[in-house]
Amino acid sequence: MFVDSHCHLNFPELAGDLERVMANMREKQVTHALCVSVTLEDFPAVLELAERYPHIYASVGIHPDSQGVREAEPGDLVRLATHPRVVAIGETGLDYHRLKGDLEWQRERFRRHIRAALSCAKPLIVHTRDAAADTIRIMREEGADRAGGVMHCFTESWDTAAAALDLGFYISFSGIVTFKNATALKEVAMKVPMERMLIETDSPYLAPVPHRGKLNQPGYVRHVAEEIARLRGLTLDSVATWTTSNFLRLFKVLENVHHTTH
Q1: Cα 206 from chain centroid?
Q2: Residues in Cβ contact with 75 at an 8 Å cutoff, skipping those fewer than 6 apart
Q3: Structural domains of the chain, with CATH
Q4: Does the global pTM surpass 0.85?
Q5: Which end of the chain is more exposed for a tag (fewer CB within 10 A), N or C?
């Protein structure tokens, strides 16, 4: 059985076809998924999904790319994270790929999320793109190691992975690791300790091979696990067991994963 540690079921590409998406999860033995917030405006829809489906969890946060949205006032994230279906703060982090210019606002937003995670004792979901040095620096400065969390949809170097691992973070691989040209990322996936690895789809984006270029969905996380198993010379069951138990431990999901009501 598998867990999709990062998806966006509330996005319109998937929200209109949820029953088929859930059926595909069952068919592919994907027992749980974490639906990740990218703005405070979309958080109610994320939470509604987690309340409706017992096997779906929620996070609360503002994506670094999100501009022109409501910023989190002190206490907002902590207050919203008290809901029992909210298991993480994020996604948060830094992204220097899409946005240019003075991005101090982005760094300050990241710091607020780390402080919220520390305050409510919930792990962070960290997004970083073309900003690895500043991401790790701010994580160190703000004591993110005391909150813990995951570097989601990881595409950075082994040095960045090692720095995050030193801070107690997990590394999550998406469908990108299945892409033929992702040679450097495959090498990172062979080095990350299995006890610190998660898998995800980041759906509706980044569908893995053999669905590359199509709409992604949580059921496809199995293909990520298959590629990890191939790279590491492990059985698929072993990768499933590691990544599922890691998810349950990191996000403090205490229910018996063998018993789901979906």
Answers
A1: 13
A2: none
A3: 2-250 (3.20.20.140)
A4: yes
A5: C
